[in-house]
Amino acid sequence: MPKYCPTCGNSSASVAFFGNFCEDCTKKKLASSLPASVELKRCKRCGNIKAVGAFAQPDARSLVSAIGQQLGGGYLIKFIGMDESAGRARLSISEDTPNGTVTVEHEIALEYKGVLCEVCYKKASNYHEAVVQLRGDSARGQRMLEKLNTYVERRNGFITKVEDADNGVNVYVSSKKLASAFMFAMKLKPVVSFTLAGVKKGRRVYKNTYALHFGE
Ligand SMILES: [Zn+2]
Ligand SMILES: [Zn+2]
């Protein structure tokens, strides 16, 4: 005895069924339960979007993570493609049901909410934990500044600003751990000093200064 789909009347003799309903209607039901749009948090400065855990460059992986968070659990989402200027993405969305896995292609509108990511917020507020003073030969100082910048950015830190000083520059670095690790990696021997920057949760917070002098 073939089954007949109560929604559209299709027969199980001609199409696949998921439980009591035909494949078509099962897919339509999943598709209609999915939202037509999602709102993603996007940094106004760097354009990174908020994925699970952190802000990341907008690519297939971070989009799937951000959209997945909006849809709630229970779906397996794959990225098919997107039209950035139109703000639309096409996804393959699968849901496990007691009668098997149902997969649909779904187009979703991406709406963006402008925010500041943690890094841009810190940059905007001049956040820094360490100052590297580069003094003396300016060509050597410049090369060291470039190495420091690469080192710090590769490790998710940043240079807040570089300011001119007597006989060189002061480089403001987001993390003292990274500034210190850089000195160690480059086998540099800076003169290190500490200044009290304030008290945070009852503990004194120090700003580290690393002074380097390059001979001519
Ligand atoms: Zn049907
Ligand atoms: Zn940002």
Descriptive overview:
The protein is of the alpha+beta class. It folds into two domains: 34-118, no CATH class; 126-214, no CATH class. It is 26% helix and 43% strand. The protein contains five helices and 13 strands. The strands form four sheets. It has a five-stranded mixed beta sheet with strand order 10-11-9-13-12. The chain has a four-stranded mixed beta sheet with strand order 3-8-7-6. Strands 1-2 form a two-stranded antiparallel ribbon. Strand 10 (159-165) and strand 11 (168-173) form a beta hairpin. It is rod-shaped. The termini are far apart. The model has no long low-confidence stretch (mean pLDDT 92). One zinc ion binds next to strand 2 and helix 1.
The domain count comes to 2
Alpha carbon gap, first and last residue: 94 Å
Q: Which consecutive residue ranges, at least 5 long each, have pLDDT under 50?
A: none
Structural class by SSE content:
alpha+beta
Brief digest:
By secondary structure, the protein is an alpha+beta fold. Helix content is 26%, strand content 43%.
Keyphrases for this structure?
4-stranded mixed beta sheet, alpha+beta, rod-shaped, 5 helices, 5-stranded mixed beta sheet, binds zinc ion, 216 residues, 26% helix
Topology diagram in text:
Blueprint: E1 17-18, E2 21-22, H1 23-33, E3 37-43, E4 49-50, E5 55-56, H2 60-71, E6 75-83, E7 88-97, E8 100-115, H3 118-124, E9 130-136, H4 138-154, E10 159-165, E11 168-173, H5 176-185, E12 191-200, E13 203-214
Parallel strand pairs: 3-8, 9-13
Antiparallel strand pairs: 1-2, 4-5, 6-7, 7-8, 9-11, 10-11, 12-13
The structure holds zinc ion (2 copies).
The site of one zinc ion has 7 residues, from helix 3.
